[in-house]
Design a protein that fits this description.
Blueprint: H1 3-24, H2 38-58, H3 75-95, H4 111-136, H5 168-181, E1 196-202, E2 208-213, E3 219-222, E4 233-237, H6 239-246, E5 254-257, H7 259-268
Parallel strand pairs: 1-4
Antiparallel strand pairs: 1-2, 2-3, 4-5
Helix pairs in contact: 1-3, 1-4, 2-3, 2-4, 5-6
Length: 272
């Protein structure tokens, strides 16, 4: 996907997040992040937006700590604070030069491409969290933050499927970022004592990923859909559902082979 497409997605997803948070109320529980209420979600995502904005606007060459959102704000004041940070991030990305030079933490064509992509997916996943607080959640605790419980298998009502507004292209891009970026890093905890192979297959595109699991960080690659390697476990489904399932926001659509590998993902793939 192009940077402009990521920025458009960030714009839309931030607006949807705000609308869901306003409707749910800041005291509503967030089922997809069991220890959070909507105010925690807004403070976290708003802080991430400001953190990203600073790298792009000021060209910081090295990492800087992420600070918490304002504990003293709540209700409409907190929503306004979130909206302001989201708008500033969009304005900053749109105004940034193509040759922007600043710190990043995943491979990308450029720092600008990295931050637009990362914030588009960050905001999308947390938009799903905000919508789960409306009371139509799939009831599947999981989540991105440390200490979240594993997602529990159950049926998801298609009428409340949070993946419905995600395009296959965007979802595939997000799975690429997660498998080839985040979990390629040494900090990934998805490890096995005995080497195993996990395959992820999107049923509505030709996208297939092979994930080699061992005592080292997962080694993932895009596979040839027509000639996939043998796998110990395969997870399949529409790209949008796979995207949210791999981020532990929905159950896996379908699992064949050894279900223990799908369980291993649930238990160890959380990213802080």
């Amino acid at each position: 996907m192009e940077t402009a497409e990521h920025i458009r997605a960030l714009d839309e997803e931030g607006r949807l997040l705000t609308a869901a948070a306003r409707k749910a109320g800041t005291d509503a529980e967030v089922p997809t992040c069991p220890s959070w209420r909507v105010r925690d979600l807004l403070r976290h995502t708003g802080a991430v937006h400001r953190w990203a904005t600073a790298f792009v606007a000021e060209g910081h060459p090295s990492p800087r700590p992420l600070t918490n959102g304002p504990a003293e704000r709540d209700g409409d004041a907190l929503l306004s604070w979130f909206e302001d940070g989201h708008r500033r991030l969009l304005d900053t990305l749109r105004a940034a030069p193509a040759d922007l030079d600043c710190w990043t933490f995943l491979p990308a064509p450029s720092p600008l491409a990295f931050w637009a992509r990362r914030q588009a997916h960050e905001t999308t996943v947390h938009r799903v969290d905000a919508e789960s607080a409306l009371g139509d959640a799939p009831g599947a605790p999981g989540g991105m933050e440390p200490g979240m419980d594993a997602v529990k298998d159950h049926a998801v009502d298609p009428a409340t499927d949070f993946a419905m507004n995600l395009t296959a292209e965007f979802a595939v891009d997000g799975i690429d970022e997660l498998l080839l970026g985040f979990h390629a890093r040494p900090r990934s905890r998805v490890r096995t004592g005995t080497p195993r192979v996990l395959r992820v297959r999107a049923t509505d595109t030709d996208a297939v990923w092979t994930v080699r699991l061992s005592s080292e960080p997962p080694a993932a690659e895009r596979a040839d859909a027509a000639r996939p390697l043998d796998a110990d476990c395969e997870i399949t489904g529409p790209a949008s559902r796979l995207y949210l399932a791999l981020w532990n926001r929905l159950p896996f659509p379908a699992v064949t082979g050894d279900p223990a590998l799908a369980g291993l993902w649930r238990e160890t793939s959380g990213i802080g």
